[in-house]
Amino acid sequence: MPLPSDHDPRVTLARPDLAALVFEGVLEAERYRATMPMQCVVPATPVRAGTDDMAELIDQLVFGEIVDVLEVSDGRAWGRSRRDGVVGYVAIDALSEDVVEPTHRVASVEARAFDAPGDAERDVLPLNALVRVLETKGGFARLARLGWIALADLADFHAFDPEPAAVAERFVGAPFRPGGRDRTGLDAAALVQQALYACGLGCPRAPDQQQALGRAAAVESLMRGDLIFWPDHVAIMLDARRLIHADADKGVAVETFAEAVARRNQPSACRRL
User: Which fold has domain 164-272?
Assistant: First the structure.
């Protein structure tokens, strides 16, 4: 039985056989169960639409993010990402039941972690990963679960970048990957989401969901930071004539608004944050 039309299955933790306890009396299911918070403990891990490695990549969890898990089966956790609300399947090996409260976030597009300062690289953390600093020494911070990272790559948990457009520009050259949201590959909506997160702004995962952000803007008077939408696509204006987006052909690239319109037609919506 499909979910009611007012419950988006992309963000609703419910199936005909099992639903989160909060939906008891709201949605019909065979069983209801409380969720268990689990935290991502690897730099980034796929969130997939199904239980196998070939299932569609719909999102990624990055280090420190929490997923509210409803079911664990065959090495997969089925749950809902607490940060952007996406429901999907995550490898259980990437998660921990021990939730560590973050003190900082990764402020660089890519931040290298080491077992000790001066050692070989151990991991690469993506922008907006959430970490807990245990101590600092010589320009480095020791993180819970991860080793050492340069202080220059971190920002206080409550400190944010001033504008999304500038954050998005730091991704220029990154490849396009549907469902991805880090420097190794990301889609158009993820570019917007990562840019807004870095500025302390909440942001859903899909372009149609992002159209609820901000207020309507006129296409004749676009300005830096405006979001421009086409069906299943979104871009950020850099000024009155240029935009940046994650394009399937070019990766993250800057082009003129006129060039984008020539390839995609007129935008379906424009929003000002």
Answer: endopeptidase fold (from Nostoc punctiforme) (3.90.1720)
Residue 153: both structure tokens together? 């790559």
* Among the listed residues 65, 9, 24, 26, the one whose alpha carbon sits nearest the alpha carbon of residue 42: 65
Q: Do 57 and 86 meet the contact criterion of CB atoms below 8 Å apart?
A: no
As a whole number of angstroms, the distance between CA 268 and CA 231 comes to 7
Strand order in the sheet with 44-48: 57-62, 44-48, 87-91, 76-81, 66-73, 36-40, 95-96
Amino acid at 122: R
Give the residue extent of every domain in the chain: 19-96, 104-156, 164-272
Rg (CA), the chain: 19
The pairs formed by 260-269 with CB atoms below 8 angstroms and a separation of 24 or more are 260/228, 260/235, 264/230, 264/233, 265/230, 266/219, 267/219, 267/228, 267/229, 267/230, 268/229, 268/230, 268/231, 269/211, 269/216, 269/228, 269/229
Segment holding 207, helix H or strand E: helix 207-210
- Over residues 60-107, the pLDDT tens digits come to 999 999 999 999 999 999 999 999 999 999 999 999 999 999 999 999
Model confidence at 207, pLDDT cuts 50, 70, 90, reads very high
Classify 255 as helix, strand or coil: strand
In this structure, which topology does domain 104-156 adopt according to CATH? SH3 type barrels. (2.30.30)
**DSSP class of residue 176?**
B
Q: How many CA atoms lie within 13 A of 10 on its CB side?
A: 12
pLDDT tens-digit map of 191-203:
999 999 999 999 9
Quote the pTM value. Answer: 0.95
How many CB atoms lie under 10 A from the CB of residue 56? 12
